[in-house]
Every structure is written in C-alpha cells, then in structure tokens.
Amino acid sequence: MTILIIGSLLLGTVFGRFFKVWVLVPACALAFAIVFASSAYYEHGLLSALLEFSVFAACLQIGYASGWLSCVIRDRWRRLEIPHEIRSESSHPAATRRSQPF
C-alpha cells in the first residue's frame, strides 16, 4: 500500500507539471480498472478495493496539485526577478550595450 501511495503521488506530480487537469479523468478510470481487476484476481473484498482506489485517486490528485503549485510558484518567482534585472540594466545605459564575444 505504501508503494501505491508513493507511486501515485509521483505520477500525480508529473501530471501536474506537464498536463492539464483533464488527464486525471482517464488516469482515475485506469486506476479504477487496475485496482478492481487486481482485487478480483487476489479475491479481496469489495470494500478493500474501494479503499485502495480511494487512496490511489486521492494521492493522485494531491500529487497533481503539488506539481501544479510548483509550476505556479516557479513562474511567479521568475516574474518577480525579471523587473529587478530590467531596472538594473535600464539605470545604466552603457551596461545595456554589451558586446557578445561569440
């Protein structure tokens, strides 16, 4: 169960960084099919399968939110740094006319 939690968190983080929120719908549908198929194969009860699926889906969504937040925080951090660089270059006109060696 621990591997399931860690794996779904990491998978959700990757989805949050590179995909839109609609990727969670097929991911949860696939998780539903896999969890219930493995539950039927190992002859676990329906309640156990529902619990496992709910943990997997919740961790997938938490991972997605953390991946999305990391992108948002990174983008806002970059926007805060850019005006500072522009102000420092615009205050010295000679600094903006740098020659590039290559």
Explained architecture:
- With 102 residues, the chain is mainly α.
- The chain has one domain (2-86).
- Helix content is 82%, strand content 0%.
- The chain contains 4 helices and no strands.
- The protein has helices at 2-18, 24-41, 46-90, 93-96.
- α1 packs parallel to α3 and α2 (24-41) packs antiparallel against α3 (46-90).
- The model has no long low-confidence stretch (mean pLDDT 85).
Features:
102 residues, single chain, mainly alpha, 4 helices, 82% helix, elongated
Number of domains: 1
Dominant shape: elongated
What is the terminal separation in angstroms?
55 Å
Query: Number of helix segments?
Result: 4
Q: What is the mean pLDDT?
A: 85
Strand fraction = under 5%
State the order of secondary-structure elements, H for helix, E for strand: HHHH
Largest sheet: none
As residue ranges, the low-confidence spans are none
Q: What would you call the structural class?
A: mainly alpha
Please give the radius of gyration in angstroms: 23 Å
Residue share in helix: over 70%
- Strand tally, please? 0
